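Researcher: For the record, we're logging two predictions in this thread. I'll number them. Prediction 1 follows.
Model: Prediction 1, sequence and structure:
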Amino acid sequence: MAKRTFIADRMQTIGSSGIRRIFDLGAKLKDPIDLSIGQPDFKVPDNLKGAMIRAIETDRTGYTHTRGIPELRERIKAQLKEEFNWDAEAFVTCGVSGGLFLALLACLNQGDEVLIADPCFVSYKHLVRLAGGTPVAVSLYDDFQLHPERFEAAITKRTKLIIVCSPGNPTGVVFKRDDLKALAELAQKHDLLLISDEIYTLLTYDGPSLSPVEFAPQSTVLLRGYGKSHALTGLRLGYAAGPADIITEMIKLQQFTYVCAPHPGQHGALAAMDTDVSRHVADYRTKRDLVCAELEGAVEFVRPSGGFYVFPKVPKQYKSATEFVTAAIARNLLIIPGEAFSERDTHFRISYAATDEKIRRGCAIIRELAAPQSPDLEVGRPVHAGHRRAPQRTK
């Protein structure tokens, strides 16, 4: 008699996170140059720490309403009213990822198709599959901007949702107004729902990042959070807003899954609503400029306008991003191969949420690895610092 397997079939569609593999590898290296993880390198602002400490000291550590504490919900709704003139239903989620999973579970039937801008955050396609849907990658290569005509070409009778993220992860690209407007109109034309992941919306460097809410509020579920902008990644705090019927079902699911967002953290998020992060935005703008200057002429890349990532193309002498990243890890540099985010493995992600010194050291290694190979060198072997930079390439 064959031994029973207790692992569900759905788990066969999910591999381990490429980001987490690098993260775990970094823990084993001695003093790595870590440009891999998407985590702010500044500390949680003191007023947020104080708000959470006071919450704990006054025993506000039990369950909250599934929707979140009333003060935070009202502030969120007031902000959305001011920003979009949008009277949306909203509730507090366990991070943007938690909100995304609830939205997909609430909306997808078995076999429904979800158009996903590719490259994208690592969890999108896996969460779609867990919710019973079918992810359909829509390429944003090579400029990483939205191409509405590509989305329209991908629509079938089974298409139900579109997931977008601006500023993008892993690209750092902010979508153009006209493209976002055209995609919103496309969603309305075909009766589709847009899910907009805006976790990086406060971290923009060349002007604001727009939201599809501006163009199609009745067709958009908005997901935002406090992790990237206020260094609260480990506290899992975000919110979802959108059409009342969808939000109601998401709240119902939260009752039986996450129950509620962490209580003390919600008081920290409330304090975050009054916290100016412009200094950190200015710091990341400087880091963005630094990493672009360091990489210029060595690898091809699209200049990012938000978040804290750049997504360069692998030098032509390497067969894949995985091969290039393997060579980088041999030099104690941690970066992420494109296959973690995409159907293609042609690019790699750098996080510049790091010290300027680490950014310079990491980019120096990338320049060395990208330099033209001498006949006696094998691709993937350490390249010595004496080699010249690759000639300038057109971006």
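Researcher: Logged. Prediction 2.
Model: Prediction 2, sequence and structure:
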Amino acid sequence: MTLGPLMIDLKGTSLDADERRWLESPLICGVILFTRNFESRAQLAELVADIHAVRQPPLLVAVDHEGGRVQRFRDGFSPLPPLRMLGHLYDEDSGAALRAATHFGWLMAAELRSVGIDVSFTPVVERDLGLSAVIGDRALHPDAHVVARLALRFASGARRAGMAVTAKHFPTHAGARSDSHTEFAVDRRGLAELEDDLYPYRRLVDAGLQAVMMAHVSFPAVDPAPASLSRWWITEQLRGALGFSGAVISDDLSMVGAAVAGPVPERVRRALDAGCDMVLLCNAPGEVPAVLEALTGYLNPSGQLRLARLHGRGGDSWQGLHESAEWAGASATLAALSARPELTLRG
């Protein structure tokens, strides 16, 4: 059985009968986990193993584990600072920041791989323009070249731990004040004005980036549709102009920013028709049956191959990881970064 295009979430800390039945559908590619799905490291490892055991090849298990306010698992996991702290350090000592970014990516990925999680949807590569509150300290730096340098090091650390990274949110959420979770988000800049925002993606794509998450942001000077539903952004720009060959992932299609496309099943079809390989549907379990019905017969062999490449590779046991000198060094680096005071980045 191959991987389908739909990734869903779960209500609790174990699979219920409906969820298990949905996961058996060839239209599902995996599960995204949230804090509500976590009680302990042992419970999490058991849940991930249970999800993987539903089908062959195994379903993907994903999480948003960026650091700072977006870290889904905390008790027993290393606390990760906001990505912005890497930017603060870069302004003082670029070499130390680049080393810390590598440690950050490795530690995040290594701990998740030790409990079987395949992929974390990170890093955020928006520039910190001071406009988008929902991005805020999730952004690395205002300077696109600094963002790219830090993100490349973060990605290299994660890959060494056996995890692909997902750069988000393409082309950017940095210029939209509205939060696309709860409002329709608009950025009125033209394509030429977005060149700096696209620069980190160019660098990451050239380095072999394996996944990109699309933004529910509309750029009416370019295309009135949200980027996540826009064939122009996905096919012409991301795949064509930037040469991206990895997996394209929508942000959560239950968000208000995607509601312009109508009911959820229509949003899903719009995103897939625009070129997404995977669509996320979170916090809307009642919509899953209708979406599966709407996707009956859907097939995208190229997308299936791109998604299969997101499966995690290797990974130490939790005990082995925490006994390693590399974990001790990375943990100490991140602890020191977390202890630094918040500053305002130089634009």
